[in-house]
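Re: the 341-residue chain
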Amino acid sequence: MSLPLKKSYQPMEALPATELPSGPEWQYEPKWDGFRCLAFRDGKHLNLMSKSQKPLTRYFPELVAALAALKAQRFVLDGEIVIPSDGGLSFDALLQRIHPAASRIEKLSKATPATFIVFDLLVDDKGRSVADVPLEDRRKRLDEFFHKYLKTNESIRLSPVTEDFTEARKWFQMGTALDGVIAKRRDLPYQSGERTGMQKIKRQRTADCVVGGFRYLEKQPVVGSLLLGLYNDEGLLDHVGFTSSIQAAERPALTKKLEKLLKPPGFTGKAPGGPSRWSKKRSTEWQPLDPKLVAEVQFDHFTGGRFRHGTKFLRWRPEKSPKACTMKQVERENRSALDLL
């Protein structure tokens, strides 16, 4: 007789690393660009939980339906929710799902259906916890679970895995087609909330951007952030994000340099200043510049025509022509990460 199903697990997380670890104790998996999710099923009760233990169930009805259709009545799966789009993955489409209106979510679930990519099994189909067994054994059990219950389910996919370091390097070199590579210790149990048995290696991504404007620091007459632009296919400069990683000691001199270049419109394509649910006042307070300065920045993600998070300023590129700073730098590679599935 199986024990009552555990209602939550703190997800095992990865420690950031700069190089892929090697050795027989490691296995490698793609790092997916989505929402980390643990799926719990106990009979008719099915819940999707985020990494921060927040419910995701109402936002992905198509995945709830796919999981509820399985013959297995009890299980806990660890994986990533992604939304395929244009041969790749769209994080913007995921963000749109976090919406208060059920009708909007239902419409999006049909227009842009999500996929649940599974990479770990914590409770098997008998309701028995397998979190305490080594990953090597859990992966075998996950493969068996997948082929028994999920092989023909298009909404739920099995994440690939390899013990071959060379193969993992090839995945890493896919660049923007993948979010990176995860290395996991094969000999360790599932360590909830810990980072000792997993490492995430992300490829450094950089882009040369035109500085099309800037914002002052709040209540201070010095530059607070640089507004970044890239030229689109029509030759117009689109606003794509910002960087605020400017050394305090450099702000006064940089402000004087920028103020000498003040010249509208700054951006000839998409410009800052649209409505913002977070800070409507700040969204309109920016200074346009003559597009002559080029800055190299480091970024994590580029989706929906923007850097998803703030970028890190690396250096000025005076030798770089502003017109050479195009969207082609951040276009995803032709090969999709989904080709691995």
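The longest strand covers residues 205-216.
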